[in-house]
From TrEMBL:
Pfam families: 4HBT_2. PANTHER family: 4-HYDROXYBENZOYL-COA THIOESTERASE FAMILY MEMBER, ACYL-COA THIOESTER HYDROLASE YBGC. Belongs to the 4-hydroxybenzoyl-CoA thioesterase family. Keywords: Hydrolase. The keyword Protein transport does not apply. Gene3D superfamilies: Hotdog Thioesterase. One of its GO terms (molecular function) is fatty acyl-CoA hydrolase activity. It comes from the Bacteria. The gene is ybgC. This is Tol-pal system-associated acyl-CoA thioesterase. It comes from Paracoccus zhejiangensis. The keyword Hydrolase applies.
Length: 129
């Protein structure tokens, strides 16, 4: 299942040449992951409060393929690659029209309040399947 969100590139996202600063792609894909979980009915604040677990990025493999520019309308696409008892691996892309500008594989770990690895709650597992 693919999830998609649309976002606009603002001046604050760019450098003096009007090109999106490379680190901002990580912000864009974070929004994609967060909105995907929200759209699946997963409330991350409630998970922290009720189950004592949070998600943290453990690894990002990223390819910068083509620049996004000021005022571009972008789509962030997210899909599940793999899920283990304590990790979620997602493939994410940032597109302008049909052109892929950025691609990443992101590993997110489920952590307890003490920062130790924890099992992904069943509600989240079911939502992602």
């Amino acid at each position: 299942m693919n999830h998609r969100i649309t976002l606009r590139v603002y001046y604050e996202d760019t450098d003096l040449a009007g090109i999106v600063y490379y680190a901002n792609y990580l912000k864009f894909i974070e929004r994609g992951r967060t909105d995907w979980l929200r759209d699946l009915g997963v409330d991350q604040s409630a998970l922290k409060e009720r189950e004592g677990v949070v998600f943290a990025v453990r690894r990002v493999e990223a390819d910068y393929l083509s620049p996004a520019l000021f005022d571009d309308l972008l789509v962030v696409e997210s899909s599940l690659h793999q899920m283990t008892p304590a990790r979620i691996v997602m493939d994410q892309r940032v597109l302008r029209g049909e052109t892929v500008l950025f691609a990443a594989r992101v590993t997110v770990a489920c952590l307890s309040a003490s920062g130790r690895p924890a099992r992904i709650p069943e509600t989240v597992r079911k939502a992602l399947r």
